[in-house]
Design a protein that fits this description.
Shape: rod-shaped
Number of helices: 0
Distance between the termini: 60 Å
Structural class: mainly beta
Amino acid sequence: MQKLIIIALALTISTWIWGQPINMSYVTAGSFTYTVPTGYTALVTVEVWGAGGAGGIGAHATGGGGGAYARSILTLTAGNYSVIVGQGGAPGSAGGLSSFEGSTYAAGGSAALGSGPGFGGLAAGSAGNDGSPVSGGAGGSTSGNGGGGGGEAGGISGPGDLGNNGTSVAGAGGSGVNADGGDGGNGGTPNNGNGQNGFAPGGGGGGEAGPGSSGEAGSGADGQVVITIDQVLPIALLSFSGEPEGNHINLSWSTATEINNDFVAIERSTDGIHFLEIGRLQGAGTSYTVRSYHFIDAAPISGLNYYRLRQVDIDGVSTYHKIISVEMDALQSGIQLKAYPNPTNNFLSISWDGPAEPTLIRVFDMTGREQLHQVTVAGLTQYSLMVSHLSNGIYVLQVQHGSANEVIRFQKY
């Protein structure tokens, strides 16, 4: 079953943007390059079928094995990606492995040699991140005068169907289990009939020749690689990094394009698994120019801090981008900061222990922007901070004596 190749076009306000990521099907054996153009990031489904193995020749030979199948869902940033389509096995040869960027791959079926079976491409020799890869079907054998049929290639529905054994008639190739995996070729007819080739797309195994020395084995079919665009992501992220500075961490990222980008939420984790939002920045809507963003995490932890960006488009759909980690040296503290009441409406009473020197008091909103800045006189260890003018929400209070620093989150209602 061939898949439709669709070329996607995007219309901006003033110009056509050509060359967005497109759906592609590679059905001919060889090496190819799939390109995600500059300025785009795409969520894709990659399906890979290994090539089929050839059928055998001789009274006790078998049909060739069908190729395995693997599937991955990947986020591809702009760049070139390697595609290899395995070649179907010629008589006496196994089918070749097919792969995408060396990370998603499907084994080819084995050839029928001597009296051994032509095994289907094995799931154990394949890899994909969306469920377990599946094996191709094994070839059928000869128990009479007809050649055994080739095995069917695997597919998303499950392992490939086995080739039928040849008896007094030619064995039929495996088929019917996977509409998306190539059928195996039929075995040769009695008395030296030729085995049929396996069918594509996906590597069906070749049929076994009919018993005798003059029949020819069927060849395996070439493999296949299919790339389907699930979504052109609203943000093409060029960079995302973080650097410690004093007792906070500066986060920076830049985008090449933004499509219907409402906002970006910044999320932090202490274990790289469980994340909590610590702030958000407004997006640019739709933009095809490079844009830079900065955010201050005013309350990191000592040790590793993990960060990720959650982009939310205008329709409310969320997309997660890569995770980074930033090492924070031991935070200097010891001033025993207290703040109450929390939540508060008008005033925040602050107290601390510290040396007889001026104290810096700052308040940040959850985007990292400074909202209040006060410096107390030397020797003061408590202060009443007016916050009534702040909008309702969560804020970060920072109190600093020289290099000693503490933070507390508080809520204004």
